[in-house]
């Protein structure tokens, strides 16, 4: 990491601030008691957003270019033009390609990133936008906790300093920012494109990876979602963000078999479109789709998935 910083051309780095706890004090809306997770259909790529009961929004990745803004417009009211936190898990195009449009259309209040070295024009463009808009950046490390003040707490579990230092460009997936977000009894683990190496490191570190809902690693690659990892996470529900007929063969039968072996339900954006799952802290349900008004034009009606 240090060596790379010296060579860095990005003055942005000097704005990087690490913080052990980021307290979110800007939540102004009245709590509605619902924690909502959107797994967006952005084609082959990842884009997930959580909305907290007080209305704070955290977007994790923005998918490939040109899909995410339309998706956000479907779930957010047209006057709502702010996003409290944007996390990007790692700087590959299927995760950050849509983010420049997000920063153009929405006021982003904070960025959380691992700052992995990667040569990609879209990444450089993104860093320039962040710098130009003077957006505070928090370096993703396992001591970072985001407490939204309304019961939702997000904890960064990865990358560790060691993982960030050891990374090489060809292995960029293993720098993926991994977060566990909890509200009451409900928890979501979002693992970016992390593979077996990171999964094993998380288990060995004793990080709190147990979660009800798992955003499956690397679009269901056969090199992610080991049985050992799935048994440690014990998800009831898995969400795979993946493009229709993608050229990588994602999700792979190997990953799907392992998920089936732990008995978790599978939602896939290539088949199900955008998936919205909500929780009041105990009961978890699949919410009606964004185009649903007064339950008249609903493709997807609310459906209870589990409760605890
Ligand atoms: Zn990816």
Topology:
Elements (H helix, E strand, L loop, with lengths): L1 H6 L8 E2 L3 E3 L11 E5 L8 E4 L5 E4 L7 H8 L6 E2 L1 E4 L4 H4 L2 H7 L1 E2 L2 E3 L7 H12 L4 E3 L5 E3 L4 E7 L2 H6 L11 E6 L2 E5 L5 H10 L7 E3 L11 H7 L3 E4 L12 H9 L3 E4 H4 L2 E5 L3 E4 L16 E5 L1
Parallel strand pairs: 1-10, 2-11, 5-7, 6-8, 7-9, 9-10, 14-15, 15-16, 16-17
Antiparallel strand pairs: 3-4, 3-18, 4-5, 11-12, 12-13, 13-14, 18-19, 19-20
Bound molecules: zinc ion.
Overall description:
The chain has 308 residues and is α/β, with parallel strands linked by helices. The chain has one domain: Metallo-beta-lactamase, Chain A (4-Layer Sandwich), CATH 3.60.15. Helices cover 24% and strands 25% of the residues. It contains ten helices and 20 strands. The chain has helices at 2-7, 68-75, 93-96, 99-105, 121-132, 161-166, 196-205, 227-233, 253-261, 269-272; strands at residues 16-17, 21-23, 35-39, 48-51, 57-60, 82-83, 85-88, 107-108, 111-113, 137-139, 145-147, 152-158, 178-183, 186-190, 213-215, 237-240, 265-268, 275-279, 283-286, 303-307. The strands form three sheets. A ten-stranded mixed sheet has the order 1-10-9-7-5-4-3-18-19-20, with no helix packed on it. Strands 2-11-12-13-14-15-16-17 form an eight-stranded mixed sheet. A hairpin with an 8-residue loop joins strand 3 and strand 4 (48-51). The radius of gyration is 18 Å and the shape is globular. The model is unreliable at 1-20 and 25-30 (pLDDT under 50). The structure holds zinc ion.
């Amino acid at each position: 990491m240090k060596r790379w910083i010296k060579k860095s051309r990005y003055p942005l780095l000097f704005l990087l601030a690490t913080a052990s706890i980021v307290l979110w004090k800007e939540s102004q809306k009245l709590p509605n008691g619902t924690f909502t997770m959107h797994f967006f259909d952005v084609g082959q790529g990842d884009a997930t957003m959580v909305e907290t009961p007080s209305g704070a929004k955290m977007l994790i990745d923005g998918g490939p270019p040109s899909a995410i803004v339309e998706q956000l417009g479907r779930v957010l009211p047209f006057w709502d033009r702010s996003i409290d936190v944007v996390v990007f898990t790692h700087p590959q195009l299927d995760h950050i390609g849509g983010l420049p449009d997000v920063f153009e259309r929405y006021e982003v209040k904070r960025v959380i990133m691992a700052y992995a070295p990667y040569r990609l024009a879209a990444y450089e463009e993104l860093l320039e936008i962040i710098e130009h808009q003077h957006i505070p950046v928090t370096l993703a490390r396992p001591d970072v906790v985001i407490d939204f003040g309304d019961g939702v707490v997000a904890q960064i579990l990865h990358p560790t300093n060691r993982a960030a230092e050891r990374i090489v460009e060809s292995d960029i997936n293993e720098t993926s920012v991994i977060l566990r977000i909890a509200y009451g009894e409900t928890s979501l683990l979002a693992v970016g494109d992390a593979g077996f190496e990171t999964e094993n490191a998380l288990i060995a570190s004793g990080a709190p990876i147990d979660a009800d809902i798992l955003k499956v690693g690397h679009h269901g690659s056969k090199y992610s979602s080991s049985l050992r990892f799935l048994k440690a996470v014990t998800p009831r529900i898995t969400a795979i963000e993946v493009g229709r007929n993608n050229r990588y063969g994602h999700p792979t039968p190997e990953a799907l078999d392992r998920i089936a072996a732990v008995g978790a339900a599978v939602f896939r954006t290539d088949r199900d479109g955008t998936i919205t799952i909500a929780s009041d802290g105990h009961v978890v349900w699949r919410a009606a789709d964004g185009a649903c008004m007064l339950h008249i034009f609903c493709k997807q009606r609310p459906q209870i998935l589990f409760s605890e």
